[in-house]
What we know:
homodimer, globular, alpha/beta, 30% strand
Amino acid sequence: MTQNIYDDPTFFAGYARLPRSQAGLEAAPEWPSLRALLPDLRDLRVLDLGCGYGWFCRWAREQGAAGVLGLDVSEKMLERAIADTQDPAIAYRRGDLETVALPWGAFDVAYSSLALHYLADLGGLLARVHDALVPEGILVFSAEHPIYTAPNRPHWTDAETGGKAWPLDRYLEEGPRSTDWLAPGVIKQHRTMATYLNLLIEAGFGITHVEEWGPSPAQIAEHPEWAPERDRPPFLIVAAQR
Amino acid sequence: MTQNIYDDPTFFAGYARLPRSQAGLEAAPEWPSLRALLPDLRDLRVLDLGCGYGWFCRWAREQGAAGVLGLDVSEKMLERAIADTQDPAIAYRRGDLETVALPWGAFDVAYSSLALHYLADLGGLLARVHDALVPEGILVFSAEHPIYTAPNRPHWTDAETGGKAWPLDRYLEEGPRSTDWLAPGVIKQHRTMATYLNLLIEAGFGITHVEEWGPSPAQIAEHPEWAPERDRPPFLIVAAQR
């Protein structure tokens, strides 16, 4: 059972104030990289794993998707997603990604933004997503980068050579990490890059692209405070094909 | 042109004193992981990219390989490889992996141990290795892990939470890094995990397994000083298939 931190009132209130919560996909700096890995969604059936407020579901329909199913474990997120959506071709369903059943061969594209690092049993979900896709169906996801999730105490220090450094430890020790982000005791599951990729391969996916996301020079010009993110990428983005 | 540091007398003398130089494959702690990714070599044609002293070439023949070609840029390494080898089915050839021509469809297995992080143009080599393999031929390689090659000044610090930490910086800034290992000014090429994997995919390979190597509990029991390597893996190991 995944920790349902999004229904924690303190967490939910903090999350609602994030730029990406208020302004949607365009406020997420990694969104252009995710979008670039998606096929033309026209007439495709799309699955959103951890749909949150439904921003991606609605965007997919704007691109011409035939239908979209958004799944999320958070009742509060889904309440707002439903309130913000007037489109009979978008369905929302509450479910824990670790256990939710998915229909076989029902989707052309599966998408997930920053949800999979909450799951202890990622392999189980990937096997179900594999079967839920049509042959050659596409999975595109982002997750917090393993370098970001690994440390006992994630923080920046001043590098001796100037700039910032990210003291990395426990990289190969997989398992839960408790961090205080928006609320105390948020549980994320650290797994290595290798494990993300091997679980995909074991589930039957072929890996088609990997990106370790950091801000572009143009983004750093606009947000100089993002520069250290190039010292330690915050997000892992993967595209895979059934 | 790759820096040919192995023909530097200081470097070569230091390298010759390493356990893996004196005792061969079994002295390399990551060898069991590499070996596990190799197919049964009986009757197969094997290519070793950066063969060094020829330990792997001779081992492949002991496993029944039909023939082995070992390539290396270092004249001194090849001199010793030739001196240590009495086997007409093993051929050694001097060549820079960045430019060396390879025969098409001539090999069933390509192998490389800790050589590819010296190459500035890895994509060019991978394209040639792809064409040098038969369809469904296998590539298994190790390289220094990107977390290991990234920092401006690679070093351990004491973690605030106990144990060691590896201050990571410049992870997304790819390119040469000059380090003092066995000799001053050894040039290694830092590239991210994503780049290693995307170059393989672009060359036509399917990725079949990824390992971020760290010592096992049994190895740490024997060598307690290796424990911090689990905080920051030193080696990346990848298996791919044409």
